[in-house]
Amino acid sequence: MSSQEGAVPPLLSRSMNAVIVAQFFSAFGDNALLFATLALIKSLLYPEWSQPVLQMGFVAAYIVLAPFVGQVADSFAKGRVMMFANALKLLGALSICVGGNPFLGYALVGVGAAAYSPAKYGILGEITHGDQLVKANGLMEASTIAAIPIGSVAGGVLADWNLYLALGACALAYGIALVANLMIPRLKAA
């Protein structure tokens, strides 16, 4: 019997690397887009009370969709759910870039984020083995924690330089996340 049989693949497999890259750029885009869109609505002279309304549209997607998104993530291959969710985020960011309603665009990003969340955690159990799951969760959280301040600062700084450069960078981040999702092998639905 070969020592290769039954060997556990390394934690940082192609699938895991793709998930971590997708998560980083997806979270980066979420946070950068918040600050870029806030700068946009301020430049469009929306009233001050519209800023929390923008954020509520994103959060409302989580609240409304929470009872359903886990079932959706389990009904389809999780990598494809993540890809579809990032495509929604990209569509929302692009709609804001081309002058669409920023509230609707950002709400669409919120729908994508809500759909993405259970799939990104559910896939970890499918691409790792046994004791690797805790480490995989740690890597996922580390990529998220890194993406939040980097995305927030990048979104704000880029919006100060050029608002449409900032919005374009957000769309690019979602595009990179979407491409990274293509690197996740197709797994069976739960």
What is this entry, summarized?
The chain has 190 residues and is mainly alpha-helical. Helix content is 79%, strand content 0%. The chain has one domain: Growth Hormone, Chain: A (Up-down Bundle).
Describe what this molecule looks like in 3D.
The protein is mainly α and 190 residues long. The protein has one domain (14-182): Up-down Bundle (Growth Hormone, Chain: A). It has seven helices and no strands. The chain has helices at residues 14-43, 50-75, 78-97, 102-122, 124-127, 132-161, 163-182. The mean pLDDT is 90.
User: What structural category do the secondary elements indicate?
Assistant: mainly alpha
The CATH homologous superfamily is named MFS general substrate transporter like domains
DSSP, total strands: 0
Unreliable segments (pLDDT under 50, ≥5 consecutive)? none
Give the CA-CA distance, first to last residue. Answer: 32 Å
Number of domains: 1
CATH topology: Growth Hormone, Chain: A
Averaging pLDDT over every residue, what do you get? 90
Overall helicity: over 70%
Rg over alpha carbons: 18 Å
**Major β-sheet annotation:** none
> Which class in CATH terms?
Mainly Alpha
Give the CA-based shape. globular
Topology:
Elements: H1 14-43, H2 50-75, H3 78-97, H4 102-122, H5 124-127, H6 132-161, H7 163-182
Helix pairs in contact: 1-2, 1-3, 1-4, 1-6, 1-7, 2-4, 3-4, 3-7, 6-7
